[in-house]
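User: Please work through this fold.
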Amino acid sequence: MPVELHAVHVVAGTVGFISLGLLWLTMVWGTTLRVGWGLTRVRHQTLYGVHQTTMLLGLTLGVVHGLAQLAVPGGPVHLVDEWLPFANGSDPLGIGCGVVALELLVALAVSVLIQRRLGYHRWRMLHIAAYLAFTLLCVHVLSSGSEVRSLWARLSILAAWLSTLVLRLATTHRVASVPRRLAERVDARLRGRQVLVNVDPTRCVRFGFCEHEAPEIFQLRGDGRLTYRPSVPDRQVEQVIRAARVCPARAIALSRAATTMVMAAER
């Protein structure tokens, strides 16, 4: 390979790896913002500013990496390959995944400008596509990157991808609430203050009044069925009592967990 081509290849590869690292940091930092970690000690504006800065730097370097491929005389990447996915003749899968990932990331960056119109909930749901974009980006690097032929390089990229996936799954609402629920149950059992909830399915008419009063305890599913937590910590007892009072069918029954059992006297 001529010296000029080798220099362009090294620059493009280096920029690409830096872009991948910054985008990985953006994913991790975005999860930090989503679950609120560190907000008690760091201002939200600071965390949000770091997230935006790393995202813009990583995205800019990703664009530079793509354009640098055009600087290779007679190279396999052409101008149409920069925006049309899977059109390249020599490496359609690898380059196509990189193009789709970059286009998704650009769309997500632009969505920040219309966040208020979309609404915060829809905007957060839209940002789930960032995990798909990062997955495609890792596929692009593993498939098209000539510098990742070594085992340690491939393992590093796989570890970065797997860490974002595990972090995303570990910070979902259901999974994140498991330690809190377990702690509440243990605390309630130790203190003997656990309240048990029972809903009579033959009387429940599923009007949803209980969910309105105690949304953390009662939830109406999309199929119309009611789900509820059978044990409630002491700090949420008042909510459950209000839910039982407003229930028009009087289907909710509350009881305390037994702490002491007394046997009948011998005759």
